[in-house]
Amino acid sequence: TGSGGFRKRKHDNFPHGQRREEKENVNPSSALMMSFKSFQLELDTRHDKYERLVKLSRDITIESKRAIFLLHRFTSAPNGEEILNESEVKLDAVRRKIKQVAQELFGEDMYQFHRAISPGLQEYVEAVSFQYFIKTRSLISVEEINKQLIFTAEDREETTNMTSSSHDNQPQTWSLKVTPVDYLLGVADLTGELMRLCISSVGNGDIDTPFELSHFLRQIYDGFTFIGNTGPYEVSKKLYTLKQSLAKVENACYTLKVRGSEIPKHMLADVFSSKTELIDQEESLS
Amino acid sequence: MSVSDMFIALQGVLTADQDIREEIRKVVQVLEQTAREILTLLQGVHQGAGFQDIPKKCQKAREHFSTVRTQMESLKTKFPADQYYRFHEHWRFVLQRLVFLAAFVVYLESEALVTREAVAEILGIEADRERGFHLDIEDYLSGILTLASELARLAVNSVTAGDYSRPLRISTFINELDSGFRLLNLKNDSLRKRYDGLKYDVKKIEEVVYDLSIRGLNKEVTAEAGGEK
């Protein structure tokens, strides 16, 4: 019974690691152990790649967010052209990151690592469609976005500072396709930015943009209602926020219409600055 | 392209996607049915009389696996070959179950761990992603962990059936498996959770071996086990 007690005690302090290390009567070079060694390698490689992609996705998110902040200054600045150029530079930087993602994913099943990169791609869709809207007053298509995500190897220096070493026989082009769902989620986020743009443009005395925006947002809202619950759960979840954004823009247009003729233009900003605060409060709650 | 045209096109894509998922679900249901049949068949080994006709049961199970292969063939045709991971979650569960069943059959026949390649062959799929519909490594490992719990149960029941040597062989096997799994650096995901259960199977089997050895129910191995401690 002595040895039994010993055994029992060993089970009790079971936590992984040093458990039964001394009692290793397992042949480390058996077929089973050899195959588990190869599994270890395979799993580690997979996890490492996933982590690299998560990091890239985070960088893409941050850079895209900065581009969006920059674009919000567009209406207030007299030199709009300059801001557009600057945002283009920022988005180019984002695309270089996406190129690294495309290189990581070359030869892989993109959906295996989709969860790692999806947040970044959505933010990129939001940024690039925001810029596109400011330029053209229309919605960028998913095809248009994907067209910009085909990369060639023309810049040697970029490829040399790649973190991964598994690209010995690199192809000449890499591409990444934003999935329809990522596109939809990005566009849904775009509407939030457009709502902000609407409020701030009123603050700047621009009374045409809000009406344009409400028309555009209504089109997008109609589009989302058309999709309804065909899409995945995340899409229908965004529909609620989208409705709120639309309501805010519509209310802004209403106020402009009703009171715009009464209030001198230079005072419109005051009328809406209180409104903006209200909206920010609601945002922080959600 | 107008905004509404874009959304109409996107809606079309999403509907097509749903149709594919629906098709996959149908085949997976059939696969689950076959898996249940195999499981029912193999459960028989836990009954007293079952120990005598293990080979026969394995033989029968292997016949069922040919049905599995046909159904897998049909599953492969339901979606584009390069989008395996897009629909992975639909067949993940049943595939893990089938891995377990195949591993169980192979264990009962040869008392060895089935290799990933061999399971893939039994199921009529590939072991390697590059070659088509394949067996994901995490699904393989999950199936193997289910085998461990089944063997813990088998150790108990073989004692009841009067087979005192089997638990010792199972113990050796599980110990090796445990050492194998300890080589892996698992992420905090479902596989890790399954792996955390392995220690209880190991413990259970060791208790059976202990009960046998203190009672001298298996003379020749008792000496060995005693020397080892």
TrEMBL record, chain A:
It holds the Pfam family Translin. Residues 12-25 have a biased composition (Basic and acidic residues). Residues 1-27 are annotated as: Disordered. The keyword Cell inner membrane does not apply. Residues 1-11 have a biased composition (Basic residues). It comes from the Eukaryota. There is a cross-link at residue 275 (Glycyl lysine isopeptide (Lys-Gly) (interchain with G-Cter in SUMO2)). One of its GO terms (molecular function) is sequence-specific DNA binding. Belongs to the translin family. Ring-shaped heterooctamer of six TSN and two TSNAX subunits. Interacts with GOLGA3, TSNAXIP1, SUN1 and AKAP9. Interacts with the homodimeric form of C1D following gamma-radiation. Interacts with TSN and C1D in a mutually exclusive manner. This is Translin-associated protein X. It comes from Indicator maculatus (spotted honeyguide). The gene is Tsnax.
UniProtKB/TrEMBL annotation, chain B:
The keyword Ubl conjugation does not apply. InterPro entries: Translin, Translin_C, Translin_fam, Translin_N, Translin_sf. GO terms for cellular component: cytoplasm; nucleus. GO terms for biological process: RNA metabolic process. Keywords: Cytoplasm, DNA-binding, Endonuclease, Hydrolase, Magnesium, Metal-binding, Nuclease, Nucleus, RNA-binding. One of its GO terms (molecular function) is single-stranded DNA binding. Its main location: cytoplasm. It is found in: Cytoplasm; Nucleus. It comes from the Eukaryota. SUPFAM superfamilies: Translin. Mg(2+) binds at residue 150. Exhibits both single-stranded and double-stranded endoribonuclease activity. May act as an activator of RNA-induced silencing complex (RISC) by facilitating endonucleolytic cleavage of the siRNA passenger strand. Belongs to the translin family. Ring-shaped heterooctamer of six TSN and two TSNAX subunits, DNA/RNA binding occurs inside the ring. PANTHER family: TRANSLIN AND TRANSLIN ASSOCIATED PROTEIN X (PTHR10741). This is Translin. It comes from Indicator maculatus.
